[in-house]
Amino acid sequence: MAQAGQHVDQCFGNGKASDGGLLFQGHVSGSLHIHHETRAKQHAAQRIIPFPRNEDVVDREIFAALHRLLPPSPDYQSAALWGLGGSGKTQIALEYAYRRSRDPACSVFWVHADNETTFTQDYKVIAKRLGLADGLDGPELLTAVRERVEAGQCWLLILDNADNLAVFGVGRTRSGRDQGHDTEEKQSLYDFVPRGPTGTVLWTSRDKRISGSLVGGRRAINVASMAEGEARILLETVMCKEIAEEESDNAMALLAELDWLPLAVSQAAAYMRRTGTPIGEYLSRLRRRMKRWQLLSETEFDRHRRWDVPNNVMQTWDISIERIRQENQMAYNILHSLAFVDSQNIPFELVAKAAKMIARPTSYEKTASAKSVHIRDQGGSQDDNEKVQAAAVLLQHFSFLRPRTSGERYGAYEMHKLVQEATQHSLSQEDRRTDQWHFSGVALRAATSLFPERRRELWGECERYLRHAQLVAEWSGLCEGEAEAAALLTRVSDYLYDRGRWREKEPVDLRAYGYRRKLLGDKHPDTIGSMASLAATYHTQGRYEEAEKISVEVLALRRDVLGERHPDTIGSMAELAATYHAQGRYEEDEKIKVEVLALRRDVLGERHPDTIRSMAELAATYNTQGRYEEAEKISVEVLALRRDVLGERHPDTIRSMAELAATYHAQGRYEEDEKISVEVLALRRDVLGERHPDTIRSMASLAATYHAQGRYEEDEKISVEVLALRRDVLGDKHPDTLQAMHDIAVTWNSRQRCPEALAIMQDCFQLQCKVLGQAHPSAQRSLRALNLWGPDKKKSTRVSRMFGRIATILQ
Fold it and tell me: Per-residue confidence at 314, pLDDT binned at 50, 70, 90?
């Protein structure tokens, strides 16, 4: 995976960020949309509840307490259900949701709050149902959904399984990056939870801290064990028969052994219903298993206890799973394989793929390269899928799996977290390590087989398997599958880059690099490739010193291992040049780019995309140096080549249009610049999405053109939006965000908002000195602006109007 470098912003007109620079090649980020809505809101109440109503739900006392806290009301209100896993929190919330659905005017939305991925996926479903614009993603999607829900007159939002409260900002503190670099505090998901003036929010969580943090201390209900009568009703309901008088004592004893915990009661009852086992016989079997548990050594007991799985659940699970193994080996295998994927939104295809890989073991042809892993997969037949569906139904009968029923999630399943933890726990035992190795490997291979290769039209599939791919990679050490995991994570990394999710990409790169370094050594081409990917991530985050350090090392390694003329070596030279460009070291940048272009012409040919990219990169450098005629000549040639080789709508072709527009801007040819810039912005919005950094850059370029034409009101409107977007997408201290601060300061000064302009320019300069260094061209431009403006407000306004036209000369 060669990731040669390509991007650095340039400043034209009033110093606004524009194309004409380079992006790390091969990386085009994601499809997003800034407009909160593109079609009219439908007034009918919407219901998005992923599970069917449990018509046999036990009417627990806790329902009355919940309805007292959250009565149907026009005012905003919130509450939380917290308690041990398996205590029935989700079932209570589900019944509450259906009861509120009786009101025809009340919209009901269900969101899995386990982590950012599931939260975002469910918000996408809500966005689609509410008629929000296609292409929304990231924080813009979350914000749009929050605002639309808040605008409703009557709504209920269930946030289920919010067990990791850190993602909602609870207990979070600011911390510095490694190696002394500051990092931006990541936006908390709590910012996207609707809050008033109407509506109801109900949380479920294992974490008691939700009380007093996300809801008021008196608005959290502890969901503990069931009352004796409630547990008895549940047992009878799931068994589908009343408890006979002669079994009454055994039933009460069994419920006591199970600590009146709903999940344990349900699984025990499901087993007895399925097998026809009398309560007394099941009780005896459970007590024997519990006795063996109590005889564990202290060391073994501590190992068991760390899984946070109640003993009663473990034992009921053990009894049921043995029965499943006897009835249907495929179901047994599926259950154990799913222990190593995400417990939420498990696609049927992933279940089927795991089943097939167990039934027909996959062959691996392993060479020294993790990229040389080949999965032989002939596809599944209808008969195979029917067998998988039958196995899944059996798992549902034993309360191990449940289907999702929302239209957007049809064909997907969920596994109770406690069931998954119990499965993981069972496989961790000394006598089951071979099974653990086997099933974790099956999960890894299934996810690897399903996670798509790098194609924009497959982004939806990538998102579907994203969380599963990341989790199976974390478990890969159990099956000695780190090489396969590194290859999978490389595809995940590419996808995250393409979507512009560079903060998420960094830990993926670090894990892949760690795996490859451990298995393959520092000098293996794949290890070096992972280093290059990490350098690309640091570059996109504006961490140029870290990017430079790694890029220098990567270049030296590739020269040593691959030779001077290998395409990856040449790509590393381009990456280093891109970093020098970003640092304002244009002479060093130019020297390398001239050499890279000559090498690529010789090695790859004139029409190879990498050769054309080198031409574009050199043109960008000439533009930065004020050599506009040379830049224009190359840019026109590059655009023609890319249109011919790549097509009109390829991101690189669009980038070439933007670079040519930037050259026209620098030459003062604003009408030609504007015509192209408008087209580029429309194309990028359509191809890449509103929140892709290139799209935001096009917005900034168009604002710069308006500024140069004296159209300050239009300029300001876009520039304000650009600054907000960059802060949200890239962070407060990213160089592009600082450039946007500079831009808006110049615009405000042109509109005679001098005190505000001076204040933001001062902040901008201080941050640029800290992030880029005072000698960086961007910092120097801000300093010159401050010196030119001075305290004289009239003078500063006049100078600001000239500044857009002379900023390029001042570089």
Answer: confident
